[in-house]
Structures are given as structure tokens and as C-alpha cells.
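User: Show me an example of a complex going from sequences to C-alpha cells.

Assistant: Sure. Here are the input components:
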Amino acid sequence: MTERVIQRSGVHARRAGNWALNVVLAVLGILMLAPFYWVFITSLLTTKDAFQLPPVWFPSEITVVNYRRVFELIPFWHMALNSLKISGIITLGSVTTSVLAAYAFARLRFPGRDVLFIILLSALMVPVQVTVIPTFILIRHLHLLDTHEAVYLPALINVFGIFLLRQFFLSIPREIEDSARIDGAGHLRILLQIVVPLSGPAISALAIFTFQAAWNEFFWTNLFLTSADRMTLPVGIVSLQGQYGGGSSFAIFAAASMIVFPTLILFTFTQRFLTESIARTGIKG
Amino acid sequence: MLYGYAFLSPALILFVVFIAGPLLGAIALSFYKWDLFTPREFVGLQNYRDLRDDRVATIAIRNSFVFAFWSIVLHMTFGMLLALAVNRAMHGALRYFLRTAFFFPLLISWASVSLIWRYALNPNFGFFNYYLRQIGLHPPNWLVDRHWAMEAVLFVDLWRTVGFTFIVLLAGLQGVPRELYEAAMIDGAGTLRRFVNVTIPMISPTIFFVLVLNFIGAFQIFEPMFIMTNGGPANSTRSIVQLIFETGFRSFEMGYASAMAIVVFVVILIATLVQFAGGRYWVHHD
């Protein structure tokens, strides 16, 4: 009898503990997102209200003046277009070079293959600090400073992507390609008609992460691009910081909201796919 | 045979032009004095000798190490705790919400995130200090306080990127077969024993993967310091990336900046090799 009571109170305590932990987790999750909500709400406030404490979470009066300021201060849509163009070229280009190289490493035989693979992999240990000065000198020498080429050309190689796809290609059974080979299909056809379609999840995951990294890139873009009408969104929004004065600093809140909210909507629908691909690449590595 | 080189050539050419070439270029440049505009001058090891007595460079290197160390400790600890907490029986909607909430900041650029937190941490109108004061604390003026600026950057970094470690470790935990835990339980192993003897060995490749990626990422971080504090106050958040950036593109000392880069490269190389060598003793591959 007493034993059963103890046992049951143990179950109760356990359940209460579980419940409490869930509440803590939920609160943490809300706190994670709170800054974004705060930015959005503040972007809708007049400067006077925005400077007030306690912070306003549910405003009674809103204004779009901060959004108007953004368009006065920077060519926002033009920058968004630049971001889209540069990220698109980087994604398409670097996924293509990665697919080709990964296929060569996974399926083709040629002298020096494994040595080349190791040399290429060791590039993962070369940090940006090392390549930035010579790359800048090279870009300047080629008269490409302040052009989009300067930003996307160096990003067309993705050593991590090559590694990832090679591992994936190696996991595809060779027999699938053998019948095509007997039918006389060349390597390019085997790659495009068999290997690439079979690697859909890996390639799309790589493409998404490449796009996301390119879309958010700041360091190189900030270094190479100086004209406002050539800048991408991350560099553009930071340039707002230098322009404020007289309360227009809240234009940054409006610009950040315009960047964050489309992403949040897109992410809510693709979360499962995104997090699962990132987890998969993590486990594969 | 030719196909191999043909398929490889785009990646290989880009590799030589934008990675291997610049690496060799940086080594060569580190023996010169050059301001980009006047002819360069060979100075041998002088840049490296200057570096030894450079107080700011010493501080920046130390900052980068301190940041990398604490960033890794915080990410691994919180990432693991979160993964363990979410890897329990719970409502599907709650799990979906948690994965979304912790992963989402990763999708927003460091540029936006740094600006957002610059304002959120502002003592005059940011919400952060306001609520800390409400619960009876006396928060410092984070980004302009020499003793707290780095802590603030570490916090923002944790907030933005802990989701990656969390999601990857969670996937690792979900891959551990249940039977192993049941067997350990029958053998009388408690929660801690099960964690140390079952969980850790089973997901050790995943742990190793996030550890290496966190390390590489922590050393190359630039934006949060550059945008939130610009390296200040009093150099307390100046990272080695920012110092190289400034030495190269503000003071135009290309050779000196390259010497810094090479020193950092050698240090990172040794640290990475140590990680891989050490990994042999605790990472289980099967």
C-alpha cells in the first residue's frame, strides 16, 4: 500500500517535473523570438513613443513614417534585387562546380585524385583572415572593385559542398549507373540523368544553405562594394546606421522588419525540411 | 581519364585563384612592407618581429581565443541541454515551435542581428536592461562597458547560433536506438551513467562535427563586434579578423596584416590538428 503511494507520488512528481520543464522551454522559445517582435512593433512607433520605457508591446497608435524614411535613405528595393542577383548566381554557380567536382571525386579515376581531394579539403582550415588581403589585391588588380563580380566570383567554389556531395554520391549504388553505361551513356549524361536526380535532397539542401549564406553575407560584400546602388541588403542596412540623426535611427527597425518578416513566413513553411537537412548534413559529417 | 580533370577543372581553377593562391600570396606578402600604392619593399621577418611587440595585436589575438573558447563552451552546453530537453515525449506542436524559435535567428544576417541587439541592449530605450532592472538587477551599459562588452557579444552570438548546435545534436540523439537505453536501465545505470556511457559515445561523431564547425565559425566571426562595438571599448572586443581588416584596409599595411593572418592561420591549423588527433580517443565510428 505505502509502496504504491510512494510510487504514484513519484509518477506525479515526474509528471509535474515534465510539465514544468515544458513551460520553461516554451518561455525560452518565446524569449528567443521576442527581439524580432520588439523590432517590428518599434518600427511602427513614432520616435517619441519608441524612446519610451517600459517598451510598448501592443501599440494603440501606429505610423509608417519609419518605413518611408528607409526608402528615402537607401534604395531598398534595388538592394534587395542586388542581393537576389548575387545570391542566385552564387547558388547556381557554386552548386554546379560542386556537383561536377564531387562526381569526379566519387566516380571517375584519374591520377592524383585522392591527393587533390585532400588538398582541396584542407582549404576548410584556411580562414577568411588569410585570404582577404591577397584576394582584395587581386580584385583590385582586375579592376573589379565595386562590382558584383568581385562578390560572387570568389564564392563560386564551396569546398564543404564538394565534400558533402561526394559523400552522398558515394552512397548511391553503382549498379544503377551500370545499365546506363552499357547503353553507351557518357559521364555527363549519367551525372545529369541519374546521379543528380537521385541526389535531390542533398543538392537542394546544399543550394538552400548556399543561398542563405550568400543572402546574409556581410564581410566580403562590405569590403568590395562602395556604391549604395550596388550594395546588398545586409550592407545597406548597416549603412543606415551611419546616416541617422534626428530620430531616423528607427528606420533601421523598419528595414530590419522588412528583411525579417518575409524570412519568418517562408521559414514557417519550410522549417521541417530545412532543419532536417541541416541535421542530416551534420550527421553525415 | 580526361573526364576527371574536365569535371574538376572549374572547382580547381577557382580553388587555385581564390584559396591556394591567396594563401601563398599572404605568406609572400608577410615578408614585405606595402601600402598598395608605392612599390613594395622586402623586409624579411621584420613584420613578425613587430607583431611580437604589438600590444593591440596581442589583445586582439587573446580576444579571439577568449571568444572562441567561451563561445564553444556555451554553444555545446546549451545546445546539448536543449537537445536533451526537447528529446523527450512532448506535444508535437511544442517541439515544432521550439525548433522554429531556436533555429530562426540563424536565418537572419549578422548585420541585422547586430543592429537589432545594439538597440535592444541600449540602456535608454532597449527592452533588455529595462526588464533586468524590473527583476531587481543592476545591469551594466553592456556595449560601452569594457568589462561587459565581450560578454554581451558572447550572449548575442549564443542567441543567434545556438540553434544550429541544438538541431544537429537533437537529430543525433533521435538516432540512438532505444534498446541501448533499455539495456543500460536493466543493468541498473542511472540517468547520468546512461548519458555518459550510452548517449555520448553513440553521438560522438555528431558532437565532434558541431565542435569543429563551432571552432571554425568562432574564429572567423567579425560582424557582431564590428557593428555592435566596433572593437571597443578600449579594444575589449577587437577580434583578430577586425584588426587584420583595419590594418589592411584602413592603415594600408598589407604586409603587416598578412603576417598577422599567417600567425593566426598557423595557430588555427595546430588547434584543428589537435582536435582531430584528440578526436581519435573519444569519437566512435562504426
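The lines above are the inputs; the final block is the predicted structure for all two components together. Chain A touches chain B through 96 residues (CB under 8 Å).
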